[in-house]
Amino acid sequence: MTTPATPEQPTQQRLPRTLTRDLSNHDGQTVRLQGFVHARRDLGGVQFVVLRDVSGVTQCVGSGLTLPLAESSVEVTGTVKAHPKAPGGFEVQIKEFRVISAAVEASPVEIPKMEWNVNPETMLDYRVVTVRGLKERAALKVQAELVAAFRDHLMTEGFTEISTPKIVSAGAEGGANLFPIDYFGHPAYLAQSPQLYKQIMVGVFERVFEVAPVYRAEEHATSRHLNEYLSLDVEMGFIEDEEDVMGLENRLLASIMTRLKATAQAEFDLLGATIPDVPAHIPRVTLLDARALVQEKYGHVVGGKDLDPEAERLLCQHYAETQGSDFVFVTKYPRAARPFYAHPDSNADGSLSSEITRGFDLLFRGIEITSGGQRIHDHAMLMDSIAAYKLKPETLEGYTEVFKYGMPPHGGFAIGAERLTAKLLGISNVRYARAFPRDRHRLTP
């Protein structure tokens, strides 16, 4: 009979810790595991404990154990044995079982079963526990790898990481959708984008990027919107036009997917998702042509000045079917659909258009994941644009000042990390692609 150890009676000769993913390297050997009680069963004289650590789960079998509540952190010392029905093909026969930190009450959600019987809002209400679930943490692992790949690739292309203020005096996109705050008696806002600062920093490093949260006071309560999300921002100087920016994003996405295949394939397998291939040249279609295409091919009439969600879905369906691409750039956005700093496009005679910009969106599997384009770099043109948008020049002086001093042609884009993660993994609601989401109705946990 196995005698359970107590926290005051640790194993005398401590073995190095083994992770569950490495058990195949220790068949027949004694190992020491540490992790959480993922699940437990007591079949009279035999107890089964499914232990979860950062690398996965494994079945541990013993007798005479006093099992703590699920989610308690424990230490198991035992012998590794091959077992075809056990997770990973191996189980651990317990020699010693020690409770490191016992759960003081039952978990509000039974993590191994929550996928099929827990209300989605309950999963968010008890996120401090539910985020421990295997699929939940897999999504966050993929996002972490995605962000690491984003950083690594940009550095190989000569970019420098920057950090910009998240408390600002004015909005980056004309003042809409801002969260106001009291800044020592003065009005201020949470930053909705690092756009203006990353443009300024082009004058310093030429190529810059930032990974940071941004805040949008949008009243949407949909599966695709968050009020705080992780923005992956890029800006590059000395470009010819927006094609240079789209080319960079094309290479960046290809590099990210290559990294995910090498480091996160297990997480994609767990979630039944496929890592997409990125075409060497992602298809392009102008906004006007895109609207015409979905109307002519699918009978969907698009209102407004942009594409609606259904049009985005249909356009992606078309390019997936006709060109085998999960990605499509929508280009040449009208001025009315772009912020004041969007650079006007060229007319056939070489003059600048008063209606069309060099702005673009990137759609992926039916949803926009990127907005970008070339920015205005000429001071006089920028001041004219600010006036045309009926903005107050004095609120943007800290930004416009730099354009008096020789700013080069430049452009960039921003990727919503949660949206990209959700679409990669087939997660239906973007809230589950963030550890602790902030949406229209949620400030906790």
From TrEMBL:
It is found in: Cytoplasm. L-aspartate binds at E173, R216, S371, R375. Its main location: cytoplasm. Keywords: Aminoacyl-tRNA synthetase, ATP-binding, Cytoplasm, Ligase, Nucleotide-binding, Protein biosynthesis. Residues 195-198 are annotated as: Aspartate. ATP binds at R216, A217, E218, R224, H225, L226, E368, G416, A417, E418, R419. InterPro entries: Aa-tRNA-synt_II (IPR004364), aa-tRNA-synth_II (IPR006195), aa-tRNA-synth_II/BPL/LPL (IPR045864), Asp-tRNA_synthase_2 (IPR004523), Asp/Asn-tRNA-synth_IIb (IPR002312), NA-bd_OB-fold (IPR012340), NA-bd_OB_tRNA (IPR004365). GO terms for molecular function: ligase activity. Aspartyl-tRNA synthetase with relaxed tRNA specificity since it is able to aspartylate not only its cognate tRNA(Asp) but also tRNA(Asn). Reaction proceeds in two steps: L-aspartate is first activated by ATP to form Asp-AMP and then transferred to the acceptor end of tRNA(Asp/Asn). HAMAP family: Asp_tRNA_synth_type2. Belongs to the class-II aminoacyl-tRNA synthetase family. Type 2 subfamily. Homodimer. This is Aspartate--tRNA(Asp/Asn) ligase. It comes from Deinococcus depolymerans. The lineage of its organism: Bacteria, Thermotogati, Deinococcota, Deinococci, Deinococcales.
